[in-house]
Structure formats: C-alpha cells, structure tokens
C-alpha cells in the first residue's frame, strides 16, 4: 500500500520484469567497476567540501552524498548534470508525503492536499525522465556504451518497452537503496568516532587504493556493518509448504505470512557474542577474508535479506560504503562537532523508508589529515 502511492498505476503489473533487471544490470562486472570509480570521485568531492565547513550533520550529509552516487550510477551523467538536486528534493517530498495519514488511509480518488502534492512531485519526476530519455534518443551514439542502469534497461528487450514505468521504478529503487545505505555509512561514522582505537588498529597510510590492496579493502568493508545493530526493517514471507520449527512441536501452515525481525536475529548473543558492542573484527576471518555469516540453509546477517530474496543492490551499496569510508579515514581526521558526541544513541528515527537514522542527527568536524607531522 505504501509503495502503491509512490508509483504510477500499472507499475506493479510489470514490476517483476523491472525488478528482475536490477540484478542483471547493476551487477555486471564492468558496471560495478565503473560505480566504484564514480563513488570514489563523489566521496572525495563531498569530503573536500565538508572539510571547509565548521561542522556537518552526519546523516543529512551522507544522504546527499549517497543520492549523488545513485543518480550518477543508476540514472546516468545526464540526470546528474541537469537534475541531481531537484531529484533529491522531489524524493524527499514523496517520502514525506506517502507517509501522510491521508495518503496512507484514504483511497486515491478522495481529493486532499497531501494527495495533490504527492501527485505533483510524482509527475515532475516522470517529466524529468521524459526530457532526458528524449534527449538521449537524439544522441544515441553518445549513450550507446554508457554503463548506467537506465541505459541497460533501454537496451534489454525485456524492459525496453517499459520506459513509461521507469520513473516509478526508480522512485521505488531510490526508496529501497537510499535510506539504508545512508544509515549504514552514517552509523559507521558514529561508531568509529566513538571508538578512536579503531583508527590506530587500521594502520592507515596515505597510499591506500581500494583496488590495489585487497586486504586493506576488506578491513574497510568490515567496518560498516553497524547496520546489524540498527536494522529496523521487517521482512514478510509466505510459506509455500508446511514448515516444522526446530526445537518445538509447532508447524507453520502452508500459505502463512511470516514476519521476520532482523533486529532480533542481529542481537541474539548465541550468534553475535556481546551483540550490543561494535566489534568490526567479528566480520573478518583469521586469514583476512570477510566472514559471510550466511550459509546455504541459514542466515545470521539479514540487512540485505537472504536466499532468493537477497537484495540485488547489495554489492552496489557495499561499494558506496567502502569507497566513502576509505576516502574519509585515509585522508581526513574526524572529531565531534559543536555539540559533542550524541548522548543517547537509542533515539532512532523510523520515519524514513528502511533502516532508522539517529533522531536529531549528530554533527562532526572533518579536516584533512596531516601526514608526517
């Protein structure tokens, strides 16, 4: 019901084709390599800008950074050059408006101001797509080899005829990809700022390159699963056959809706000793490889789902987080801003679509790292 109000009528009729294209389009090796380069460029641009400011709000600033990366990689350089800020404002409006009680509770045919505002934002989002796709048709040779996801869907016979639904598809994708990726990076900054010993243990040098030093790359990847502690999403699944619960006499009937709570799994001390502690080393095996935690028949880390329903954008989100954290921790010093460290990390904001942010945000000061001093 929530997403129905954010998408145009008919989108979910074709949703399977469009959603199936995400894994094929986003996880191409050449695309991921390109996305890593673009994410790195955006990270350096954002950090350079923030280092000239007195303080920056962690979640809000990371939100704008992640948005810019997603637009540049998924939509393309043309959407980025012409509309990146307007798209951010439109998505913020739609996210706020779809959660308005009138839009949640009233049918679409009942007139009301939040409904009209949501329709205006949705229509402008679609208008931007029509403008940019029309411009691409006039320069088809320029865009033929572009690795952005829109170009992939335009050239895939299974989705090329569904261009009218691209705006709704990308609204849904942005809702799904943006908030939780922001939360993962921002909570990592909070935890690292509270745990200064981590910076010493990383043995940072000015010559870091994600692609050149695989083990160092994995060390940065091990930093960002504080989303384990702050995962507020819920997963709904329907049983296809009766399922007997291990250790009990209860059998879940066929066609039952089952609610799965990643939060409870992520805080189970039998799986994660000292579950309320931020321990990045738990994500690395003794030989330096990342600990996957999830097996073929069991799952302990559910931030991106598991099995057939695993998030197809997991690799993309990991690249964004890794590139940003590498640029931040290798090149910059972090300290708490004007108000100091947040006093209460349990104040969570669940108004976003996805993992919660910190209510009221928190400010940090970012300055270039001085080597050899």
Helix content class = 40-55%
Structurally, how many domains make up the residues?
1
Classified by CATH, the class is Mainly Alpha
Which consecutive residue ranges, at least 5 long each, have pLDDT under 50?
205-216
As for the CATH topology, it is Cytochrome p450
From the alpha carbons, calculate the radius of gyration and give it in angstroms: 21 Å
**Which structural class best describes the helix and strand composition?**
mainly alpha
β content, as a range?
5-15%
Using DSSP, what is the number of strands?
Answer: 9
- Give the overall form: globular
End-to-end distance: 57 Å
Describe this structure in words.
There is one protein chain. The protein has 373 residues and is mainly alpha-helical. The chain has one domain: Cytochrome p450 (Orthogonal Bundle), CATH 1.10.630. The protein has 14 helices and nine strands. A three-stranded antiparallel β-sheet has the order 1-9-6. Strands 2-5 form a two-stranded antiparallel sheet. It starts with a helix and ends in a 5-residue tail after the last strand. Mean pLDDT is 85; it is low at 205-216.
